[in-house]
Amino acid sequence: MHVHLIGVCGTGMGALAGLLRAAGHRVTGSDRAFYPPMGPALARWGVETIEGYDPGNLEPPPDLVVVGNVCRPDHPEARAAIDRGIPYASFPGALAAQFLEARRPLVVAGTHGKTTTSTLLAYLLDRVGLDPGMLLGGVPVDFDTSFALGHEGGPFVVEGDEYDSAFFEKTPKLWQYRAEAAILTSLEHDHIDIYPDASSYRAAFETFVEGLPEDGVLVAWAGRAEVREVAARARCRVVFYALSTDDVGDVSPTWVAAPIAPHGELTPFELFVGGSATRTVMSPLSGHHNVLNATAAIALAAEACGAPLDRLLEALRSFGGVRRRQELRGVADGVRVYDDFAHHPTAVRVTLDGLRARHPEGRLIAVFEPRSATASRNLHQAEYPPAFGAADLTVLAPVGRPEIASDERLDVVAVAAAIEAAGGRALAPESHDAMLAQLADEARPGDTVVMMSNGAFGDAHARLLARLATR
Description:
Elements: E1 2-6, H1 11-22, E2 26-31, H2 38-45, E3 48-51, E4 64-67, H3 76-83, E5 88-90, H4 91-98, E6 104-109, H5 114-127, E7 133-135, E8 147-148, E9 155-159, E10 164-166, E11 169-172, E12 181-184, H6 198-210, E13 217-221, H7 225-231, E14 237-243, E15 255-259, E16 267-273, E17 276-283, H8 288-305, H9 309-316, E18 327-332, E19 335-340, H10 345-358, E20 364-368, H11 384-387, E21 393-396, H12 412-421, E22 426-427, H13 432-442, E23 448-452, H14 460-470
Parallel strand pairs: 1-2, 1-4, 2-3, 4-5, 6-9, 6-12, 7-9, 12-13, 13-14, 14-15, 19-23, 20-21, 20-23, 21-22
Antiparallel strand pairs: 7-8, 10-11, 15-16, 16-17, 18-19
């Protein structure tokens, strides 16, 4: 079969292209440009790439056209495919139809932690010999690719994105994945561009949970009331997990993690299952939020796949993590520079708390670029200042979406002022160049700098490391 993907350089679309090639199909893909890392990766996987969008890219007609959600209704290629009667599908629709019918989909859903938790789940299942398929939203350290076929009838791990599927299919991607088992990590209003209020956002997860089969299982975080309430709508068995310090309402979590003080580069915790202690678990991931992510992945692997607990706990210690999730990009002149995807206030807070615990020595410098549709708006104007509480210095880059109207845009100068008023230090430089100059002047040996954005951040990490190395 010949499959053509429009917008193939997106993280998910590129992984789907690789998956289709692995299944033996001829795959072509178009996009505006093919920059690293995805451009070279597509070539390596055998995907035929076409720069630019044009109806002529559909000659001769492919058997299937996959339309990325970057496309609008007037997109020249998408419009041509539809008008000519060529079979077409959204990214999640194609994934479900081509791969998930013959496998057991395990879907990781929630506002926070999806990429880390789904990658860890795939890693654990692989290490205990279950040969999982996967399609992940990040770049795993432990695998050559973010996709794998796995074997028919076996588990297939999918990161359950709640964003919409395509302009002709305005439904959450995760609804199409036919989940047999799932994790629900958290619930906080996000993606304001498609979910105008908290109730519409929550409804996406309610419908997902209600669709789980009666013989399935839902592993849900007990530490947030909204998650408990949504989980109550499931027809299947619900297994709760939590930290020992969480307020779990009226539920009794089966899986409970009790964090212990960090031990070098490892984060230890005691794990209790059904009220019984198991052992001290050593995780390479920092922060209490990653203790939760690890507990969720271990619980689903055991509950849904029957994976032996002792082997899961042993495998966790060697997990390499995910690119752009507390990823150490380098050390220059004694300054550690991390990259992280955090953009929601909660994600910012837990990321900083985790790095502060990992590196108690030296100062923690938080650098934040508001770039997502939600972060760029003033929806969380009041929540951002306290989210930076663990940082000794906060540097706020210009909003990454200047096209947003000023009365809707996040006011980074006001966020900086609020941090200062609470006793912290904050800067709001007018440009990336000014930001890098200030960071190079401020950072001292022993400090930790974490640069947070859900975009490329203008390669600020490498540019800062270069400045530090030559000062």
